[in-house]
Design goal:
The complex is a heterodimer of chains A (about 450) and B (about 700). In chain A, the strands form 2 sheets. In chain A, strands 1-2-3-7-4-6-5 form a 7-stranded mixed sheet, with helices on both faces. A 5-stranded mixed sheet of chain A has the order 8-12-9-11-10, sandwiched between helices. Chain A is globular and about 60 Å long. The N terminus of chain A is likely disordered. Chain A is α+β, with helices and mostly antiparallel strands. In chain B, the strands form 4 sheets. A 13-stranded antiparallel sheet of chain B has the order 18-17-16-15-14-13-25-24-23-22-21-20-19. In chain B, strands 1-2-6-3-5-4 form a 6-stranded mixed sheet, sandwiched between helices. Chain B has a 6-stranded mixed sheet with strand order 9-10-8-11-7-12, with helices on both faces. The longest helix of chain B has 18 residues. Chain B is built from 21 helices and 27 strands. The N terminus of chain B is likely disordered. In chain B, helix 3 crosses helix 9. The chains are: A alpha+beta (about 450), B alpha+beta (about 700). At the A-B interface, helix 1, helix 3, helix 4, helix 8 and helix 12 of A face helix 1, helix 2, helix 4, strand 5 and helix 13 of B.
Amino acid sequence: MSLYMIRPGTAMVLGAVAWLVCSIAPMARATDSGITRVTLANGLRVVLAPDSSATAADVALWYATGARGEKPGLSGMTRLFERLMFRGSAGVRDGEHRRRIHAEGGLSNTTTTADYSCFWQTVPGEAVGVALQLEADRMAGLRPSPAALAEECRALAGDRRAVAQRAPIARGLAALYATVFNGQAYGRPLLGVEGDLARVTLRDLEAWRRERYMPANAVLTVVGRFDPTATLQRIRQSFESLPKGAAFQNPRLLAPTATRRSFQRSDAPARILFAGWRGPGASDPDAPALEVLARLLGTGDGARLPRALVSEGKVALAAQAGCNIHRDASLLWSFAVVGTDADTATAERVLLDEVGRLSREPVSEEELDSARRGLETSTLFAQQTSRGRALALGEAELLTGDAAHAAARLDALRHLTPAAVQRVAQRVLTESARGVVWLAPGGGGR
Amino acid sequence: MRTRTLWRVLVLLALASAWPVRLPAATLLESAPLAAPPLRFMTPATRTLANGLRIAVFPQPGSGLVQVQLMVPAGSAAEGAAPTGVASLTAQMLRQGTASRTAQQFAADLERIGGVFNVSVTRDAAMVAGGFRAGDLAAGLELISDAVLNPLFDPEAFEGVRRQAAQQLGTFRRNGAGIADERAWSALFGSHPYARSQQGAIDALFATKGDHLRAFHRDRWRPDRAVLAVTGEVSPEQVFAAVEARFGTWAGRTTPDPARPAPAPIPGVRVIDAREAPTAEIRWGALAPGRADPALPAWTLLAAALNESESLPPGSRVQLVTLADASLLLFSAPSSLSQVGRTAKQMHDAIDALATGPPKGPALESLRRMVARSWPLALESPGAQLTAWLNAQLAGQPADELARTAARYSDPARLGDPAAAALALRQGARLVVVGPADSLTSALAVFGAVQVEPVDRPIVTTIDTLAAPTAAELLRGRQLVEQAAVAHGGAARLRSVKSTVVEGEMLAVAGPNEIPGQFSMVRVNPSRLVFSNKIFEFESHQVLDGRKGWMLAQADTASLSLADSAGVESMQTIFESDLVNTLRGALAPGARATARGKERVNGRDCDLVDFVTARGIHTRLVLDSSTRRVVAIDGALGADRLWHERRMLTDIRPVAGLQLPFTEQRFVDGTLLTTFNVRKVTVDGPIDEAIFRLPTVRRGRVLGR
């Protein structure tokens, strides 16, 4: 018997029982670190991290949809949607969302990556209820006017043009992404490509919303100064009645095959070498070691790349490395600004050789300890505000499926050994996972 | 029956929770607020060491970190007679090497423990901040104490810091918004030290020597008025012991603060002439009460009210910068050049509207609520709370000031009188605009008398130089010149000088580039001069011998040209431009030395004396009011009655009974063109006659003299 054949009265009773069961035994789990995770009946995952010593609270709604989930021809939709979320919903007028949060003494903004879109407001504890209601209202549906849609499309095009003119390092990193993840989801530009949204309609947007911006595809984090019991109750009142929707499936990534190279002209005054390696995603137990590898290579003047390329090798004016970890893959990136009188082949050889040394030789315990300490302090400092802690917890929930992973990551970092770091280097820093981009003066960019 | 009732209740509950009701906006506004835990601020455990250093510890279990902030009364307002910017340079030098560590070793040791170390300077104070893992408290405190107690002020490192500061100043000079903010401070605070530029000034930067930094460190970085605050996963006793171990030997006392004049806004409208600027930056500024003043909360509300005003120009913002002595309310907006008058009026109207109808009743309550709720958001991190607490200490506020502030904002009766503040704002507001003066002046005249200042030039009191001097001015001028002569060795000694040879390094500034070179200047009285300089491979010599002169330029090839009358006159001007000959000229009976008021130069009060040289050239001496030494010599008086050239003289040292400058910087219209750093001065030494002989140059080669 299908659900459609149940008599209305019976359905109501079943619904009531389901509600009662949820109320008595919420799918909640409190962790050792004081985090409570609850999954509402409609699939909305809630992460509560109260802190009575905090002076503010951060309310954020995270949708597991980012640029990587955009279909060909509709690139830029995530950023467009991000903008339209402030252009009015059923109970909130155009622009009212920001005004309401401001009047409460708070701040609101958004963050969009390849994996997710996060809508957040940092507010006084007393305004948590307002923030929740505003988010619930726009989760239920948007009501932008055609004029607002046209306006935001124009603004997005303006953003795209601004990005095209941005600093050479940012442009080079974008090119490195496109090279390492060639043709794949993480290689796509966050703002989309020119012309893709020229004919988008409000109907398209609604279809897009129903596919992605639904409770089953979202995480709600509340962090900082708030009463967890009253807040959870308010969350249920505000969100649980919303229809579940389907969890959105992101496209799969293909395995890397061979080193890819690209060469681009830019208006930068110097030649810049970018090299990057595709690594595992956030849930992979080797992800913390990847962060250590990036720090060993390129954080601080004493790191390996600045030493090998700048102070000792004298082939570069500056060198740096870092690591971006996404849901299903990561990018360990590096760059070197090559001196005017230096040979580019030598610069590339020195950089790749220095990176290769991490696979050939174990790091010293002292060097590893310094990298671990640096990562630990920067992580802890970043989590001192409710926004910073919400970012750590929300990303952990979105990218690994468990907010507690934020704490587990730190623990894993503390226990890394030189052998483990070398093993991960051998796994990740391979030729097949590598991409190389040269940015050379010549004006104009691409 | 009871079962049926239960089912009905369940069904109703289910319906109530599942019904997709969409609430109108008005209902959202009326939603019941959620209760939140009360706002709590950390309270410290305190101790004072024998040397006067106060320690405050705010335990924060579970954070895994420890943060240390040390505040000393060494902000820019404490610079006194030292060159502007010395506070910032001193703080920056702390991590540039200590008695036991090079800068590289310091960075490596910091990196080894994964710590962070920062220095910052405000008008009130300098701050050193460090952050480490909780287990690294001892190592972190050792690094901080080493930097604070034992800085080396290494000359080479100082040059690097100075070069970087010069680059930053160069960038700053192109930032209209930054210039507007800075000039608003000087326009509002007058001769109060808050008027000093925090960025420093290019002239002062090159006049600053290592000794200035050492002296500032010796005088201001002392423990008796310093406060060290620590928060993190540490116990008070642990911190007290560790601080005692590292800072117990810190000795000395802070020099007393000189009396500070009350802030006195300069009347009229100031236009900062940024000739190339495509847009303008407008600032309406007003003095507000100091941090501990009970009237300050009313100004906070006022600033919020102004920010919320209807019809503000696009991009406008209101900022209340609170400091110990007084605060500054800055109302800012960018503007297109054609709309400057309209934008400035729009802003003034908003100020006027507040004074006419200050917020009251529900509007005031709504503002109070917003302010009361928003200010703790800025104190989210323990580091931000430490800084706020330390600033309160600096202003003499109680240890629980943050909690008191929260209570004050919760009680409408304790917020002072916003209406009175609004009237004071309207009355005290001054207008400062940065942009091309030609395009702006007429549009701004409606707001008051417009005074135009160059971007780079220090503020100069406008005096009608060419007006006939009064008897009193002439008498005073003569006295000042005689006192200046005494300060530099005495009139008799100055007049007895027969020759001087000055050698050293020069730095020519060409756009963003600095070009180093060497120079020498030989003067034999009454009118013989050889001025030589070498930049890279290029050498040039200008020679004056009585009424004739010539110029020799040498690189791969040489070229010689005889000076015409204009060339000779130019070299005569160079001959007379050194301090010895300038003072001789001012002492001459026909010089008509005239006192022309006062000016603050590099934070010092100075007397201005104009005189006319024997060749009829107008010259101005800028004399330090306390030492009577010559601080600067102004020249190139234009038809616009502005002195277009200023030569700053610093690093005065005794030489053969004279007091002579070892650094000279030449500015034209506020732009630094050349710095001369003197290595050696010889007075009345032997002079090689050959240098005055006309050389023979053939086919690009010097054949001899």
